[in-house]
Specification:
alpha+beta, Thrombin, subunit H, Pdz3 Domain, 6-stranded antiparallel beta barrel, 26% strand, Peptidase_S1_PA, transmembrane, hydrolase, transmembrane helix
């Protein structure tokens, strides 16, 4: 048992304002090369000269002969009697040098033209890329404190990973620091199997592991408080959950599937959702905050925080499609215990290890299908339809009465009425609209108290 100690941190209601969120996941496809050399083309070479055909590259007036061929001479009369001339070696060397020079010029021209063509088609020869890639400055990676990244950085150090075992099997989930002197809150179903003779270990964001004591727990609200031998912790602030509105941005922090330090975002998608978890005597009734922030197995017990980084709820359940036997993953419908309920129950568990919940002292007929919810018409299996001397009896409720609304909020299912009552505190007054024999009237009920 822990003593009451210092009160839990409480937030001043934050200013409410929507914040848009957009997400995208682009993909890119590859592309084939866009260039191809025409069939039969040979880069850097002249086409062969066909004998008897005009040479398209021959100098003007050459008559189509190859530019390097010696001119033809037609023998004349004077030639027949001319004295043979001796070849001039100097002239022959000059001619050979001219030929070599022309060949070199042609090769140089081919290289230049080929290089220009390659540059135009393939980009060869363009300026080289800088030797180093651009690097962002430190200012480019700063995050505003009210951004998702800024809020996550502030919340993660106060979010813990919880492991429980009874010696043969184990379970895991998330928790959050309640007080600087070592108190942590999580869901009861996370540590329930270790409640008798098991072991609970809390792992902090810095990797330190601490064995934890179970201070108190309640299945009715699915909450449990743990105590570790560590001080100087940074507690998260519990906001006023009555001040939240549908559409407010929220961030869920936890360890889904054992992946510690996971952050997801969304909005509050509904309020006052009647959620019933568990079964039989261990049923949990939650007047829940609904969110589309992704919550998966392992997120249980972790904080749901608002745009100011204050806790508006403790993540505890997810909806599943009809026919699914057990929770398999988020479908965009997650539920959290409102922070006002967490504060009230945690303070009780720290003070005396037990929690109380309010009652009206009537039993409801789950077979009834008409408007509202009906009180049993008679006692069943030793259970009174209306507890003698209880809050409902004192207010004038009788067996068979139909309760139409609570504090002006219509109810159409027994669970709706139960969670609406359990969201209050013992001693609170509620207004019930009741129908009996066609007559409707309002009665005021002072809620009673039971201990979980």
């Amino acid at each position: 048992m822990g003593s009451a100690g210092a009160p839990l941190p409480t937030a001043t209601p934050p200013a409410v304002g929507p914040a848009p969120h957009t997400f995208a996941d682009p993909s890119a496809a590859g592309a084939s090369h866009g260039f191809a050399r025409p069939s039969g083309e040979t880069r850097g070479f002249r086409p062969p000269v066909v004998p008897g055909a005009a040479d398209p590259f021959a100098p003007h007036g050459s008559g189509g002969r190859h530019p390097y061929a010696a001119p033809a001479t037609t023998p004349g009369v004077a030639d027949l009697f001319a004295r043979p001339q001796r070849p001039d070696p100097h002239r022959r060397g000059v001619a050979a040098g001219v030929v070599v020079l022309l060949v070199l010029v042609a090769l140089l021209a081919g290289l230049i033209l080929g290089g220009l063509g390659a540059r135009a088609i393939f980009g060869v020869g363009r300026a080289a890329a800088p030797s180093t890639l651009p690097v962002s400055s430190a200012a480019d990676v700063n995050r505003a404190p009210d951004s998702v990244a800024g809020i996550a950085a502030a919340v993660l150090p106060s979010t813990v990973y919880v492991q429980a075992t009874d010696g043969t099997q184990g379970s895991s989930g998330t928790g959050m620091v309640l007080r600087e002197d070592g108190y942590v809150v999580t869901n009861n179903h996370v540590i329930e199997l270790a409640a008798e003779n098991g072991q609970v270990v809390v792992i902090f964001s810095d990797g330190v592991e601490e064995e934890a004591e179970i201070v108190g727990r309640t299945a009715d609200y699915d909450l449990a408080v743990l105590k570790v031998d560590r001080t100087g912790l940074a507690p998260l602030v519990l906001a006023d959950s009555d001040a939240v509105a549908v559409g407010d941005p929220v961030i869920a922090v936890g360890a889904p599937l054992g992946l510690e330090g996971t952050v997801t975002t969304g909005i509050i998608s509904a309020l006052n959702r009647p959620v019933r978890a568990g079964g039989g005597a261990a049923s949990t009734f939650i007047n829940a905050i609904q969110t589309d922030a992704a919550i998966n197995p392992g997120n249980s017990g972790g904080p749901l925080v608002d745009a100011a980084g204050q806790v508006v709820g403790i993540n505890t359940a997810i909806a599943q499609a009809s026919g699914t036997p057990q929770a398999t993953g988020s479908i965009g419908l997650g539920f959290a215990i409102p922070s006002d309920q967490v504060r009230r129950t945690a303070e009780q568990l720290i003070a005396d290890g037990r929690a109380t919940f309010p009652v009206i002292g009537v039993a409801l007929d789950t077979r009834y299908t008409g408007e509202g919810v009906q009180v049993l018409t008679d006692d069943q299996a030793g259970q009174s339809a209306v507890t003698p001397g209880g809050p409902g009896d004192d207010a004038g409720i009788r067996p068979g009465d139909v309760i139409l609304s609570i504090d002006g909020r219509p109810v159409t299912d027994p669970d709706e009425l139960i969670v609406a009552i359990r969201s209050r505190a013992p001693g609170d007054q509620v207004d019930l609209e009741v129908r009996r024999d066609g007559d409707e009237r309002h009665v005021t009920v002072v809620l009673g108290e039971e201990t979980s």
